[in-house]
Amino acid sequence: MELKTSYLAKHVRTLQPSGIRKFFDATAGLTDVISLGVGEPDFVTPWNVREAAILSLEDGYTSYTANAGLLELRVEISNYIDNNYCVNYDPESEITVTVGASEAIDIALRAILDPGDEVLVVEPCFVSYAPLVTLAGGVPVIVESMKDNDFKVLPEQLEAAVTDRTKAIMICSPNNPTGSMLSKAEMERIADIAKKHDLLVLSDEIYAELVYDELYTSFAAIEGMQERTILVSGFSKDLAMTGWRLGFVCAPKEITEGMLKIHQYAIMCASTMAQHAGLEGLKNGRRDVAEMRKSYRQRRNYIVQSLNEMGLKCYKPEGAFYTFPNIESTGMDSETFATRLLKAERVVVVPGNAFGASGEGHVRCSYATSMAQLQEAMTRMRRFVEKL
Amino acid sequence: MKLTATEIEIAEILEKDARLTNEDLAKMTNLSIDQINQIVRKLEETKVIVRYVSLVDWTKIDGHQGVTAMIDVKVTPKRDVGFNDVAERIYRHSEVKSVYLMSGTYDLSVQVEGQSVNDVAHFVSQKLSTIEGVISTTTHFVLKKFKHDGTVYDNDDHDKRIVVSP
């Protein structure tokens, strides 16, 4: 019997690999590279958190936990959300501990989408949103946030994209890659659309702790929204725990039950030692988070001003650790800019189009890197831009 | 002295890295250079910032000679001046690097640097223990500095992250 030309499913065959991967390959073998291309903190996980994992291993906690995660951890997550964002979730029936926020988004989409259901995806955004919608059998409907509006989506744009098949709106605020954050008033207007058209909001709040100028509002805290919000968050960004793969998702009981079915068959439970570490992070990690936040804020101010001074127009992002300067003044598209910058000055930035077509004309610069590295990167970028 | 939150932030930043220029500080805090100049001058003039120093790891230098000792000193406090008088008599010696008043079983913690153990021994027996009011001394020699002023000396601080990630 002849082999098939491909054993891959059609929808996987047509799925595009992440544009970031391509750029990662381009840096292979280069030395003396300063990377502003990293989507994770430069800090190492606080020691007390790492130690909690080590102690859990020493104490022999090496078996599965409950599917939804250690109850103690879910209780702590519930307290944390209540204390910080004034939303109350029942640890027993509304919280699931996941393998990073990525898994949380995946099981949320798989739990709510029927084939052909549409999800409004606001771009530029994290690379996984649209592909995960597709993999869950849904149809991603791209809504492009406005660069003239600091990459904040307008409620009218969302409403214009709503059809009979629309099931949910995906929002990430503060946003990766733009760093922009919706105000409470803007969220309320989006919430009104969700209520009017009976939509869910899948709110990726992974950067909620990394907000520098104003208080953060969770989508679930908007009046009447908890019942239609799936709140995704995790430990990666604020506690510098990316490699641990630990996240969580809070949602109404029915949705949680649905997600839990997928989670229990696909994953069983999040890594036990990571859960013990996360527990320590929630209990005793807040001071470290505050220190890191302060440092990010200083670096944000520094990089925003430096980029603007060299003529790369850049608004001041309210959160996360990304700036998204406009590079159109150089006459290059984002991939050319990033490639030439890498070659000429060995500074890595990520082309904006990796996060959706609307990111074109911009590059993502992460300031999750030491001040010394940031200073050197800015010197090199200035030299690069001046020579053009 | 009351300082504003910004002034405190500047002091914190400079405590970690004194080589940042006023221009860098201005960018980091969103203030003008003039404002930063003023704040830094104020911190310096009021001696909130006492001095700018570098941490040098002398053990990396071949042939470097030098020992550090931490000395616990018990003292009889004097009427009116308490420990101040004795502390002053101790810190005036140039080989004394720090003097702290301590709670606990002894009174002053004195850090001394010398060229050799003999040097320090000479200082303790001839100078320190003869000061009026000093009752006893216990000398501990430092064998290795692992961490000093919040800085790990032989830190493996290379970036372990992959170069590009989403």
Automatic annotation (TrEMBL), chain A:
Residues 31-380 form the Aminotransferase class I/classII large domain. Its cofactor is pyridoxal 5'-phosphate. One of its GO terms (biological process) is amino acid metabolic process. It comes from the Bacteria. Keywords: Aminotransferase, Pyridoxal phosphate, Transferase. Its EC number is 2.6.1.-. The keyword S-adenosyl-L-methionine does not apply. Pfam families: Aminotran_1_2 (PF00155). GO terms for molecular function: pyridoxal phosphate binding; transaminase activity. InterPro entries: Aminotransferase_I/II_large, AspAT/PAT-like, NHTrfase_class1_PyrdxlP-BS, PyrdxlP-dep_Trfase, PyrdxlP-dep_Trfase_major, PyrdxlP-dep_Trfase_small. Belongs to the class-I pyridoxal-phosphate-dependent aminotransferase family. This is Aminotransferase. It comes from Sporolactobacillus laevolacticus DSM 442.
Automatic annotation (TrEMBL), chain B:
InterPro entries: AsnC-type_HTH_dom (IPR000485), Dimeric_a/b-barrel (IPR011008), HTH-Siroheme_Decarb (IPR050684), Tscrpt_reg_AsnC-like (IPR019888), Tscrpt_reg_AsnC/Lrp_C (IPR019887), WH-like_DNA-bd_sf (IPR036388), WH_DNA-bd_sf (IPR036390). GO terms for molecular function: sequence-specific DNA binding. Gene3D superfamilies: 3.30.70.920, Winged helix-like DNA-binding domain superfamily/Winged helix DNA-binding domain. PROSITE patterns: HTH_ASNC_2. It comes from the Bacteria. Keywords: DNA-binding, Transcription, Transcription regulation. The keyword Transcription regulation applies. Residues 3-65 form the HTH asnC-type domain. SUPFAM superfamilies: Dimeric alpha+beta barrel (SSF54909), Winged helix' DNA-binding domain (SSF46785). This is AsnC family transcriptional regulator. It comes from Sporolactobacillus laevolacticus DSM 442.
